[in-house]
Model the fold of this input.
Amino acid sequence: MTTIELDRPAPRAAISWTFVVGMTLVGIHAAIALLTLVWTPYDPSSTAGGRLEAPSLLHWAGTDRLGRDLFTQIMIGSRIALQVGIGAVGIGAAIGVTIGVLAAFATRLLDDALAAAFDILIAFPTLLLAMLVVAASDTASLWSAILALGIALSAIVGRLTRILAKRVLQMDFITAARTSGTSWPRIVVIHVLPNIWPTLMVNFALQFGLAAIAEASLSYLGLGAPPPNASWGRLLQEAQGTVYTAPFGAIAPGLALLVLVIGINLFADGLRDVGDPTRRRSR
Done:
């Protein structure tokens, strides 16, 4: 008697550990950021604590030179870092993806001009471009920092989008779609964007970490979120004068920024694994 073997469904690929760890670290920061909207251990502007106190049960991360609770300041810094990251990546994605897709459809002359413009902007450090944009505005603020970083990141996103979109437009199914009478806007929505989105999402995650570091750098230089916003960069700047007498004032915000950036990079690496299972199996 002949037996018929049924094909077993392929096992689902396990989620990589980098994705889980990265998601956990970023999730902790996100939870803390949301918590600050309704509760903080102390009033952020309260100076009731002693100056430069060491970490204790009352002040988990100690106090700064004004007597403010440092753990409260770091919690608010998480919210600012996520605000800047989401806002800058959102602006950079909106500008970069739009121009990148248009460049992929443009004539050769316009495409070459846009590609050269992307290369010139990318040649400048992101922080330098952001500093120029902030300096051009009237006053330094959180929103000017977000706008500046978004514009600076848009060149990176635009260049990647242009390369990916041109690659997709050379596929046979695009030719078939055009032969069937599908309009170019519909091709972009149905075929181009879905095929380039996984790679763009990984890039967005990496740009998020870059934006968090750049915002801290801008705040350290006095070009980011002004007081009373407790940016990690401003906390580092304020603690540099007491780094030998009260080192935890510099260690705590630096460690918070380090954990967030590591979490974002692990999350981006996990997204890359999800989008390309063969890469995960080859490890």
Observations:
- DSSP finds ten helices and no strands in the chain.
- The chain has one domain: 14-39+61-280.
- The first helix runs from residue 17 to 35.
- Residues 14-39+61-280 form a domain with the MetI-like fold fold (CATH 1.10.3720.10).
